[in-house]
Every structure is written in structure tokens, then in C-alpha cells.
Amino acid sequence: MKLEGEYIFNGTREEVWDLVRDPEVLATALPGTQDLQKISDIEYAGKMNIRVGPVSGVFSGKVLVSNEVPPESYTLSVEGRGAAGHGQGAGDVQLIDQGDGTTLMKYSGELQVGGKMASVGQRLLDSVSRSITRQGLETLNKALQAKGQAKTEGREVEYTPPSEAQFAASVVKDMASEVFSPEHQAVWTAVAIAIVSLMIGFWLGKSSQRG
Amino acid sequence: MTTQYVGKRIKRNEDPRLLTGQALFVDDVDLPGMLRAAFLRSAYAHARVTNIDVSAALERPGVVAIYTAEDMGDFWRPGPSLVPPPWSIEGVVFHSRTQIPMVKDKARHIGDPIAVVIAESRYIAEDALEEIWVDYEPLEAVVDLEKALEAGAPLVHEDMESNMASYVQQEKGDYEAAKAQADLVIERRITIDRGAAAAMENRGVVVNWDAKAQQLTMWNTTQAPIPIRNGVAAMLDLSENQVRVIAPFVGGGFGPKIMMFQPEEVLLPWAAIKLNRPIKWIEDRQENFLGTTQERGQIHDVEIALSKEGKILGLKDVFLHDSGAYNPYGLTLPLNTQTHTMGMYDVPNFYTEFKVVFTNKMITTPVRGAGRPQGIFVIERMLDIAAKELGIDRAEIRERNLIPADAFPVHQTVIGQDFAETIYDSGDYLPQLKKVKKMIGYDNFIKEEQPRLRAEGKRVGLGLVGFVESTGVGPYEGARITVEASGKVLMVTGVGTQGQGHFTSFAQITAGQVGVDVKDVRVVTGDTSQFHWGTGTFASRGAVVAGNAVNAAAQRVRAKILQKAGEVLEAPEEELEIENGVVRIADIPEKSITLGELAVLANPMRGAVKPGTEPGLEATEYFGPQYGATASGVVAMIVEVDPETMMLDIKDFVVVHDCGAVINPLIVDGQIHGGVSMGIGNSYYEQIIYDENGQILNASLMDYLVPRSTDMPPHIQIGHQETKSPLNPMGSKGVGEAGAIPLPSLFAQALEDALSDTGIEITEMPLSPNRLFELAQEAKTNGKW
């Protein structure tokens, strides 16, 4: 299975880089992430609550980072499992300076999902994972803008991330609109969620370590 | 004259209980102190299990025990081979690998059981499942049948050289010689994928061990209570007399419940004895997709050789059959395919060869149709393609090839699932075809109706296909009939019942001989404490095999009644008649005795019965046919397809069926309706999707679609034809699988006809609206239209 996508951040590559080093923002970018522990310089372990339709549960995940070229690119290998299923995959993330003050994040990877998440959650995986990914990235982008504004005005960052309830409501809304979307076919999976969140989580861990 | 009930359209005796919720199902059994079980099933299709940590789960309050393969000790052993390889086929290759009760080293399919939790409630048990931590080492899964046989493919069973479980080759006549004479040879690849049986009631087991009485009682949704009793007794080192298996009312069998010694029914008796507590396990719907056997996966490479007049000269079929991870059920399925690939046609030369392939998927065992729909699909599709190529009407090409009535019995050379040569015992196919054509209005539809509707822009198509069904195979069944002191009659048999109407059809047979009302016959099925011998309900054999045993027992009881009454009434037996529970002298009706009074006299409290006689008005008889009787049918439908959504509207549906002597036309109609419903699912909705890792992607009824009432034809016209089988005294043949068998062939032809403007050719099953849309688009793109 392939997982691919891109997202434009309203900030320079350096700002995005800085952003993903901000643990407070990252920790709340994806509600459901319970904790993330650094095991070694390149290995992290974390827990996340995932709900896909009738399937929900805590997933424990491990992230391995490789091919790191700061602040341009890195490769993540992710393994997650819980009572509701399991998944593993590897993805490349690229940050591209667009030269107009925006940064393009490109990500692509291969995923394999199994267990209840695959057998019962299948029909919802696509839309739920896309929705969560999009919202997670949007949350990050808003945090980026809030940070930028605070810097300009020389004050503390004031940013309230969406609550888990708001987040869930937004997933439902996205899914409702998905029903009418013509491009329904893309194959995504729940580990998309795990990968994206753990990608972000990875930077959280990394920045905590440096902080 | 004793009133006869066989052949009458009688309402079912069991329905008032079923319809008012008064019938006992396994889940209704509720015992004091009963524990619940839940199974941890492998989340990987193929993985080594290196460690199972149950410590956290064991700490959960309410958890009584957790067992893994390791805890089973010597009790852990692969299940018995349920069907041995067919010794009568020359050169048969068969590698037996039977299913295991729990994973010891390697999980071989999604859902392979890894541990069982026994707890105070199912909620607790399921919560505990989430706390068991299994260390898996995932292995590459064997999913694709062709890749599975390639050199270097990962092995499902590592002690084998390849994934080929079995190989069989059979030939009637000389196909290659026939091919050399042919005007036309057509080759096609035909694929059929898996579906679930999707019974309304999932599987379930309740076990009670009475330590003081040393008695084990098991309520089980099985189709084969007696073999289960025998097997469980052997496994637990108990006398068969110490084990009672009860298959109460069962909400649909459809085949998977004939699969025996499934992990649950092996483990739970063992655990119940160990814990000395009753245990209940009821499979839930998701678990049913992961834990219950499935069917139908095959890939066929077919060649048909014909004369330019459309006469079949020869047929060659080489196919792969998906066995799943184990093969406890032997070669029943692919042999059924082989013996049905000639259908109802005169195929003088037939070469057939198959390889059975082990894959990392659920085991395949019979599901209503059991290999037959695949064989019928092959021949019916090839005839349709031939008809198009030769420009012959599809009903006409069939008519030219039908086996004529004077050809029976037809020796087909090919050996079948009962290890004997397939012989079509009796039949008369041409009148069936003609009747169907008339009932569906074939000529009028083709000449007038279809052109008119097409001119209106409607995509309407007609399908018309035929099928045969081997039914009523041995070895035997038995029945015991007793006239009780109340004058009512008890009829007991070893077969279980899953909705076939046995409580009525067996009562009809009994009542007509013993001379009571159908409602006064109490029928008991599926309780091993009531009848000791038997095989099970499968292969459309209940009414044929057990039915004839009932008939034989009833005849003997009738003889006993007449003998005893003759003594009491002091009249010759031939002057007596039995009517409405009373035996009387035909000419002197006031001289009579009731069956109840006679039963009391036949079981005296004092005095002595005559030497050499038995007490009571009771008889036990067995019946086993020499070989199975072959039923047949022709079906037709008219369907309209919405070309945008590919949703179907079935306008008309006709079945003309021949199951020999009909016991109860109402029940036969019901079997056909049910079979048609299942066939609609097999054709257009039901497909289990496995991904490349052996994960099932649609293990819920949200995604696995079964036909709803709105998908059924508004009306099914049924025509009964009776060609009695010479193989049993009643002349009956089975009907249980009839409706399901021809439906994929019927759908393929009707949909091709409806979408003929696209040039679509259908060589796969099941379809779905999506898949049909894709095929139509592909056909258009390929410019076939």
C-alpha cells in the first residue's frame, strides 16, 4: 500500500524546522498521542489512541529515523501495534523551500496494515486517515502562524490547539464530504495516522532532547 | 386407507415454535456457574509466534483461566482427517495437513487461534484478550494460487517441498483425439473467488461436565452431532456413552458447520473438565469471518472442442483449488467440481486435472453447492461463448447437447467425492428446458420484448442455464420410530437439523405409514443420547438418506401394529386398516383399537412376551444408497441493469427442478428460495477480499454484503418435475443446494445479454456492481463493441 501526500506550510523551511522542534505544539497537534519516549538518538517509542469507525484502541509504536539531512529530509520507519491491529511502514519526508516564504512538505511511503483495523475498519481507513493527516498538518500550520505573529509582536505565543472533541467532530465532517468526493479510491490506511503522528512525534522527541 | 402425507404441501410443524421464539438454540442454554470463552486469533496470516505473554490478562478480575498450545500438553494434536484421500483414483497425490487446535509455533491464517480466555463474562474475556501480548515474527504470506506453486515460494507447511497439497487427473474418452476432429476450439481462463456461508446464527458451543455423573454434555451448532460425539469421546479418553452432543435448532448450516473438530469444540470440553465448570462460547460476526471455514476459490484453464453444429466433442479443464492453510476435508470440493463440469450435457470426451494449493487463508470446506457451482459455471460459460461464436441460440445449443432421457443411467467415468464413479442415475432434462422456456416466455422475450425494451434504452437481459446436483450420498443414516402409550408417535434420527423442515417431512413419512396425523409425530433430531448411529446433514442427503431410513422404520412399525392388532381384534392383518390413530377391521369399523391401547398391550406389565419378539411398537432401520442420486434443474431470469450504477432489477425468475419424489413441495420451494438467495449473493455481492498479506479486508456485514429481501426477485416461479430415483425406495433426490448451484452461471449469461452493447464477456465470479462496471468499461476500451 502506498501513502503519499504534500502540504504547504506558510513559513520558511527554517521556520518549519523550528516549529517541529517545539514540543508544546507538537504534543497537541494530534490529540490521541499519549506519550513518546526516546530510546536512542534514532529510535523512539510512543503510544497513541486511534479510532477508526468501530475499531479503536491504544497503539504502541516504534519509530526509527534514518537518512537524516537537516533541514531537508529524513526517512522514518514505523511499526505500530495494539489489540485492534498492527501496521508497519517506511516513509520519506522532504521539506522544500518554495522561495516565496512557504515550505512544501512531501511525504511518501509504503504501509502494511493488519488485524481488526484492516478487516473491520477498512472502509473508513481511507477517509479517516486523510482527515486526520490533513487536520494534523493544518494544526501545525496554524501554530506556525501564531508563533510567527507572536514573534513579530514581541509577545508570548497564544495558541489553543483543537480539543479531541473538536478534532473528532472535524473527522466526521470530513468523512461526510468524502462520500461525495470523486476521488474516493486512494488507498490509505490507519497507519497513515500513526506515521504522520509519529513523524511529528519524532520531532517532538528530538526537540525535547535538544531543549 | 391410511391417509398419505408424502407429496402434500403441509405447513411446517416446527414453525410455530421458531416464529414465536420458543425454539432452543445453543445460545439459549444457560447453566448455573457458566463461564464464557473468547479466543485470541492471529492478526497475521503467516507468522512465527515466538512468545505469548498472558500474565497481565490473567490478573484481570473475573478471568478464570487462559490456555495456549503449551498448556494443552499431550492433548494438543492436529485434528483428525475428516475425509481421507480417494483411494479409488489412480495416481492421486494427497498430503494431509489437518487443522491444529491452537497455534504452537506458526500461525498459518488470519484467525488461527492462539489462546483462549475463560472468564466470568464475555466482556471480561474480551477485555483480557487485549492484554495478551504475542510476539510475532511475520513471514511472507502465501495468497495467490499461482505464485504459491512457483519455485522458491514461501511454504505454508515447511515440512513439505511445495505448497501443492494434492494432484488428481481423470479422463473420460480421449480429449486430444476429439480436439483433432473439432471445427472450433475455445480456450478461456475462468476464476471463482471465495465467499462466506454467512449463516444467520454463527457457531456456538456450550459444554457442561458433570463430575459426579462423569457425563459431558455439549450443545453445539454442528451439522454432525454423532461424529463429534465419537471424536470428542476419543480425544478425552471417555466412553462414547459419557458424551452427549446436542445440536438443537440451528440457524442455518450451509456447510461450514459440518467441518468438525474445529478448535472451539475440541478445546472447550477439555477446559470444562479441567475447570469443572460449564463454559459457553458464541462466535460473533467478525469472528465468523476469521474462525469459520469458507469456500469457492478456484482458477480454471478450460478448452472446449465443438462441431460447427455446436455439438460438444470434448472438454478439457485444468484448475487450481484453494485449500487454505489445512486440508481436513480431503478432496470433496475439487472432486465435486470435476464431477459437475459436464453438467447436464453429453460430453463424450473429458480431461480434468487439478492441483490443490495450500495458502495462508482460512480452510475451505463445503459451502452450499460445495464445488458444484464452479463446475457448472465452467461448462455453462463455455457453452455461452461457443453459442456466440457459432451464431447458435443459447437455448438451442443446450438442447443439442442435453443427455437424452434414454441414456440413463449415465456412466461418467470420473470418480467423485464418494470415491465411486459418477453415475447419473435418472433424469429427463429436455422437458425441464422446454418448461422453463415456456414459463419465462423465452421466444417472445428474445423476438419482441427485448428489442422493444432496448429501443427504449433499457438494458435488459435473459439468462437460461441448466445444472445437475449429486445428492443423497451414503454411507447411511438411521431412524427409530415408537408408538407411545398416548397413541402419539416418536421418531428419532441421528442427523441434525438446521432449518430443512425435518420436523415436518420426516413426520409426513412416518404419519403415512403409522396412520396418525402429521402433528402427532414428535420428531427428535441431532441428540446423540436419542440415537447412537449416523453421519450428518450435508451433501443434500438428509431427506434422501435419513428420509428413506424413516420410511423403512415406519413400514416395520406398521407391520408390528397390524400384527398385534390382528391378534387383539382376532382378524387377518390384510383386513385391517389404520386411520387417524385407530386400527380397525375395514369392513367392521366398530371393531377397533387405538394405537395407544395397542402400544400398552405390546409392552405388558405382567405375563411374558413371545420368545423372538420385541416389546413395544417400535422399530429401528437404516438406509444407505449404493451411490448418490443426481438431481437436476433449469433456471432462467430476466434482469434489467442500470448502466450507471450497475444495480439490478430482477424482473422474472423461473426454476424448474427435479428432485425425484417430492416429500413436501412447500419445503422444496423454501429450499429453492433459500438457495436462490445464496446464489444471488455468490454471484453479485458476496466476496471475501484478502489482501496480498492474507488480511481479510471486509470482515463485517458492513463491507461483506449479503443479499437483502429487496435483492430477491419479486416472485420465483417454480416448476416441479418428478423423475424418481431408482436408488432408494421413495425415489427421492436432494434439493438442499439446488438453488445456489446455477446462479453464478445464470447471472453471467443474463448480465452479458443485458450489456451486450458493451461486448462484455464474464469469466469470473463473484461480481459486484463495481466489478461489473469495470468489466463493461474494459470491454468498451478494448473495442470489442
Q: How would the blueprint of this fold be written?
A:
The complex is a heterodimer of chains A (211) and B (785).
Chain A: E1 2-9, H1 13-19, H2 23-29, E2 33-40, E3 43-52, E4 55-69, E5 73-82, E6 85-97, E7 103-114, H3 116-119, H4 122-153, H5 164-179, H6 190-210
Antiparallel strand pairs in A: 1-7, 2-3, 3-4, 4-5, 5-6, 6-7
Chain B: H1 15-19, E1 35-41, E2 47-53, H2 55-59, E3 63-68, H3 69-72, E4 93-94, E5 106-107, E6 113-119, H4 122-129, E7 133-138, H5 145-148, E8 164-172, H6 175-181, E9 184-192, E10 204-210, E11 215-220, H7 225-235, E12 243-246, H8 263-275, E13 279-282, H9 285-291, E14 298-306, E15 312-324, H10 332-340, E16 350-358, H11 372-390, H12 394-401, E17 410-415, E18 421-424, H13 429-440, H14 442-455, E19 459-471, E20 477-483, E21 489-493, H15 502-514, E22 521-525, H16 542-569, E23 576-579, E24 582-585, E25 588-594, H17 595-601, E26 617-623, E27 629-641, E28 648-658, H18 665-684, E29 716-720, H19 743-754, E30 764-765, H20 769-781
Parallel strand pairs in B: 1-13, 9-30, 11-12, 15-16, 21-22, 28-29
Antiparallel strand pairs in B: 1-6, 2-5, 2-7, 3-6, 4-8, 8-16, 9-14, 10-11, 10-13, 14-15, 17-18, 19-27, 20-21, 20-26, 23-24, 24-25, 27-28
Helix pairs in contact in B: 10-11, 11-19, 15-16, 16-17, 18-19
Please tell me about this protein's structure.
The complex is a heterodimer of chains A (211) and B (785). Chain A has helices at residues 13-19, 23-29, 116-119, 122-153, 164-179, 190-210; strands at residues 2-9, 33-40, 43-52, 55-69, 73-82, 85-97, 103-114. Chain A is α+β, with helices and mostly antiparallel strands and 211 residues long. Chain A has a single domain (2-210), classed as Alpha-D-Glucose-1,6-Bisphosphate, Chain A, domain 4 (2-Layer Sandwich). Chain A has a 7-stranded antiparallel beta sheet. The termini of chain A are far apart. Residues 179-191 and 198-211 of chain A have low confidence and may be disordered. Chain B is of the alpha+beta class. Chain B folds into 3 domains: 15-22 and 474-623, Aldehyde Oxidoreductase, domain 4 (2-Layer Sandwich), CATH 3.30.365.10; 31-139 and 197-291, Aldehyde Oxidoreductase, domain 3, CATH 3.90.1170; 298-473 and 626-781, Aldehyde oxidase/xanthine dehydrogenase, molybdopterin binding domain (Aldehyde Oxidoreductase, domain 4, 2-Layer Sandwich), CATH 3.30.365. Chain B is 28% helix and 25% strand. A 7-stranded mixed beta sheet of chain B has the order 3-6-1-13-10-11-12, sandwiched between helices. A 7-stranded mixed beta sheet of chain B has the order 4-8-16-15-14-9-30, with helices on both faces. Chain B is globular and about 90 Å long. The interface between A and B is medium-sized, with 16 and 20 residues.
